[in-house]
Write a structure and sequence with these properties.
Low-confidence stretches: none
Strand content: 25-35%
Mean pLDDT: 90
Distance between the termini: 31 Å
Radius of gyration: 15 Å
CATH class: Alpha Beta
Structural class: alpha+beta
CATH topology: Trna Endonuclease, Chain: A, domain 1
Number of strands: 5
Number of helices: 4
Helix content: 25-40%
């Protein structure tokens, strides 16, 4: 279904897979259990899945640290997984900052808490500062 949102078909499939896993496993496991389960299920559906990708963060042209993306699907959607009581503003801010630090424009925050919940965030590349001249960050990470 094309609803005008960037990567909508992909995100709908990821969200559907998230609910499949939640319905099968329930809540109460560590995030790593859900991460590995989601990676397996998405790969079974034919998606390219990368886990625990270190992504550099720059400030004024200098490397100041890294963050680790839980999952990147088809080089297009960044997934941040939680196993918390509920999604809160800090989780949303974390994913938004991850999107700002990459050339990925769409992210999903997936919470395997008492109730399954998700948030879809988007941050267009035209609003971001270039990370470095030349190659895109995703090209540098995956090639």
């Amino acid at each position: 279904m094309d609803n005008g949102l960037k990567h909508s078909t992909l995100t709908e499939s990821i969200i559907g897979t998230f609910f499949e896993i939640y319905n099968e496993l329930g809540h109460g496991f560590l995030e790593s259990v859900y991460e590995n389960s989601l990676a397996i299920a998405l790969r079974e559906k034919g998606f390219e899945v990368r886990q625990q990708i270190a992504i550099p963060v720059h400030f004024r042209g200098k490397l100041v640290g890294d963050f680790v993306a839980d999952i990147i699907v088809d080089r297009s959607v960044l997934l941040e997984l939680k196993s918390a009581r509920t999604i809160d503003a800090a989780h949303v801010a974390q994913l938004l900052n991850y999107l700002k630090a990459t050339d990925i424009e769409v992210g999903l925050l997936l919470n395997f808490g008492h109730k399954p919940e998700f948030k879809r965030l988007a941050f267009e590349n035209r609003r971001k500062r270039p990370v470095e001249e030349g190659k895109s960050l995703m090209s540098a990470l995956f090639d």
